[in-house]
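Bug #77: duplicate submission created two jobs. Keeping one. Sequence:
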Amino acid sequence: MKHLIVDFHHHFTPRELVREDPGDRLLLTYDESGAPSYTVHRLLFDLDEHVRMMDAAGIDVAVLSSAAGMAADAERSRICNDRAKAAERAYPGRFIGLAHVNPLGGPAALAELGRCAEELGFPGVAITSEQDGHCLDAPELAPFWAEAARRRLYVFVHPALRLNDSRQFDAYDLARSVGREFSLIMATIRLIGSGVFDRHPDLLVQMSHLSGGIASMLGRIRGFEDKHFWGTANDPRHGRKPERPFDHYLHHNLVFDCGGFFGSIEAVRTALIEIPASRIVFGTDYPQEIRSAAVGCAFVSGLRALKEGETILVANAALLLNDRLSNRLPRR
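Kept job's structure:
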């Protein structure tokens, strides 16, 4: 594993889930409030092009997640899972699939999670930071967190493609540019504050986009952990605290990928002020925010130039990929 660069934030969409062939066009979808939601283009299903970009940038392996299968119905989830496994087989050693299940999907979703873990051999599961009016600390998600922890699957939290409420982001593509980042920050605080990690102390969660750039907010977040100072200590919701200090969970249960910033090295530098390099993994967000080999190459080169670069690019892959799985990957 120490010799492999693994891209932990890498997207695809099964061809059959793209309604029309986009050709050289960009097909933009919108949510119910009229906010841009997702941009569809041919790179999403052209895995040959994925491999060409990976080869140019020196990326050995990509962990595949699909927006089409996040918070989706059972049929779409299963298609994404099966196609991710097919990609593993078609490109030996280059792709690793993630499970896609709806965490609010009940017993059927948990059964599909079991199939992904046992039959397909996936190491983790992809969900969104909020959905269908629920946040990640909602009681309705408790069975999902328990099952993921029981099966020792890490959970990749991607920003919600459709926010629970996007009305305040009604212009300038705000829902995607910053709304999703707010959602990731709130998801992190909710997971910690609600005691999800106290109930499942070995649970690992990969927060995408450096958890929405949470590093710049941690001073304020820590300050509001002093419930007596703010007069909320006796409030059953706002005075609730986890069993350990907030930073304990950042250093033990959370892993942060550096996708989501269009290959910006400055975003990584900012994160490193507060987040230890030992908790950051490599991610590109290809082929959405990075869509060319040139940008992918520049991002990898920029990370290598950081003193913490090799830790992020190479060493930390072991945080999320167990030895059994890593031994299946051929050295290039």
